[in-house]
Amino acid sequence: MYQNEPLFLNPEFKDRLWGGTKLRDVFGYTIPSETTGECWGISAHENGPSEVRNGPLAGKKLNEVWESNRELFGHESGEHFPLLVKILDADRDLSVQVHPDDTYAREIEGENYGKTECWYIIDCDPGSEIIFGHHAQTKESFEQMIEDGEWDQLLRRVPIEPGEFYFVPSGTIHAIGAGTMILETQQSSDTTYRVYDYDRKDASGNTRELHIERSIDVSTIPHQDPPFHPVTTEENGLTQIQLVNSDYFTVYRWEVDGEYALHSDHPYLLVSVLSGEGNITSSEASYSLNQGDHFIIPSTMKECHFEGDLEMIVSKSNKE
Fold first, then answer.
1. Is 174 labelled as part of a ligand binding site?
2. What is the 3-state secondary structure (H, E, C) of the chain?
């Protein structure tokens, strides 16, 4: 199938104990509850696939398009779509958690992928922080501090500001703090091991399940901060910052100011509009772009034209 237009997607939303209403209040989404924590903007995962809303594929789920129209993705190999893009509204602290790598996820969980992810801080309240790593130097001390509940001594807290970026490889102990909105680009996995949940109880008075043994199995000890070397390039109408280039994905922040013509030999690009408005034009048609839009530029769309004042997070798969 030859398609010379972007694939716009309708997100899926997830109610979470820690969620709020900013996905509605800031992005204008119609959310299912007052505790909506996640917008799965670009997803082919079975737990929440996005739906195409334009063109001849309208009404199809992204996982179906991946199966039936692989030419739109440069004939990339692999049974499953590799990436998942979310916007998270942390009205309350998320649990402290860790994710497995590919090998562990496949052998133990039967999942397609492990979960390496990254965060772009869209906005946060003054004084907000994340948990990023831990202070234990050995597995023995890590286990002992968990057993003794020495969370203040174990967990590494980092203050954050809007516009910051964090790469979170599998094995990294982490948590998003209250009052934070992030865009998360990750491997397409829904496997999370919960280490600590502040002894919170749900509406039924039950504490949530912890996964201590598996958390210990997969955690990186001692913690290692991944390198961060952003690369900025400028073209006519575009400022591009490469935020990370990992084994699984490359993620960019794009600022379009005026007009920008994209000529690309990419397999496909995942795009989320964080702010501003404008349009994208191909030889087929022109489409308006607004805050909260999520779309894919397929590999068959070699040229397009952006116009407006736009801030976007753009990613591509690095899967062979």
1. yes
2. CCCCCCEEEECEEEEEEEEECHHHHCCCCCCCCCCEEEEEEECCCCCCCCEECCHHHCCCEHHHHHHHCHHHHCCCCCCCCCEEEEEEEECCCCCEEECCCHHHHHHHHCCCCCCCEEEEEEEECCCCEEEEEECCCCHHHHHHHHHCCCHHHHEEEEECCCCCEEEECCCCCEEECCCEEEEEEEECCCCCEEEECCCCECCCCCECCCCHHHHHHHCCCCCCCCCCCCEEEEECCEEEEEEEECCCEEEEEEEEEEEEEEECCCCCEEEEEEEEEEEEECCCCEEEEECCCEEEECCCCCEEEEEEEEEEEEEEECCC
